[in-house]
Amino acid sequence: MSEKSATSTVLIDNDQCRLTLWSFEAGQETGWHTHGMDYVVMPKVVGKVRLQHPDGTETTADMLPDTPYYRSAGVNHNVINASDAPFSFLEMEFKA
Q: Structurally, how many domains does the chain consist of?
């Protein structure tokens, strides 16, 4: 794994869902990926992420604990910790 790669730890993986803890140091990223399942992201700490999109655009998002969000399958992006501090979130994917 690259120094730039965030750490992913699968906490639950069963017939109905997969729960993954993503942990980032400042500047670390998930790497490009496409979500194959609907999912919810639940930030664990305050942070900021930069999202790179396939069309070359980038957006930033402030992440707050207890402020989850839902996305449908098919999202393609790279997520980068744009904070000066470590950041982490839980990602719950829903299996069909």
A: 1
Please tell me the distance from the alpha carbon of residue 16 to that of residue 13, in angstroms, as a whole number.
Answer: 8
DSSP string covering 47-72 = EEEEEE-TTS-EEEEEE-TT--EEE-
pTM of the model: 0.92
List phi, psi (to 5°) of 41.
-110, 130
Domain range enclosing 60: 7-94
Cβ neighbours of residue 66 closer than 8 Å, sequence gap 6 or more: none
Question: Looking at residue 83, which CATH number applies to its domain?
Answer: 2.60.120.10
CA Rg value for the chain:
13
Mean pLDDT by 10 residues, the chain (96 residues): 85 98 97 98 98 98 96 98 97 95
In a 3-state reduction of DSSP, which class is residue 10?
A: strand
Name the one residue in this structure whose structure tokens are 């919810």: 40
